[in-house]
TrEMBL record:
This is MarR family winged helix-turn-helix transcriptional regulator. Keywords: DNA-binding, Transcription, Transcription regulation. The keyword Cell membrane does not apply. It comes from Alicyclobacillus fodiniaquatilis. SUPFAM superfamilies: Winged helix' DNA-binding domain. InterPro entries: HTH_MarR-typ (IPR000835), MarR/SlyA-like (IPR039422), Transc_reg_Sar_Rot_HTH (IPR055166), WH-like_DNA-bd_sf (IPR036388), WH_DNA-bd_sf (IPR036390). SMART domains: HTH_MARR. It comes from the Bacteria. Residues 9-139 form the HTH marR-type domain.
Amino acid sequence: MDSAKLERIRQMDETLARLSRFMKLQSIFKKYGLTATQMFIMRYLSHEAPAKSSDIAKFAGLSPGAITQVCDELVRMGVVGRSRSDTDRRVVYVDLTSEGHAKVQSMLEDRAVRVGNILDKLGYEDADTLLRLLGKLADIVEAEEIAEEGEEK
């Protein structure tokens, strides 16, 4: 691999790491008293609830035991509840409580304000280009991930 390509890869890796730190928005997590993992699970549940811990674990790339621990804490906080399946008592579903839904909505609004301010500073054309390219990048990464999963089987 030539040095110019290696430099581009290094720059992309560093930029993605910087953006990842920003997207975790530690100040918002602290404001709401949540960790990044707790927020991730709550956001997942806001779209895919009720869900089994095993489904959350697959999506998050974490062990079912780790998800159970995080969910235990979220239950104690009153933002997540558990219920058993009506058809199979061994199956336990996790879902957001009304307080959990309100907290997710509030956090998303706070995040939208922050991200919106950043996009405004880019200007319309640059923001539009960035969003288009990020969407394209996400599509490529997802396709690669699906291809790798197919190779593992």
